[in-house]
Target: CSON005058 protein
Amino acid sequence: MTHPLMYIVPIVVGVGAFIFFTITNQRERQNLYEATSNRRKRYVPNLDSEYDAPSNGTCTICLEQYDEAINCQKVRCGHIFHHECYLRLLENR
Model:
């Protein structure tokens, strides 16, 4: 005759393993979210700040000359793009 706990032990071990892997997976997802969130904050500038077009140069997105009538976007790294070109670039990512 087998002991009744012999049937319960595998169930308890299985449930414990499931809980362990669920918690571990949640922590990994949280860490990944925080890493990508920090990265996104670092590289995506504040789109509220507009920049006057420089007198010479071209937008490297559309390859057109800067025009004083068109607002430009200066990103944190110092590059300057047409505001609309930069918005389209972010949307296509």
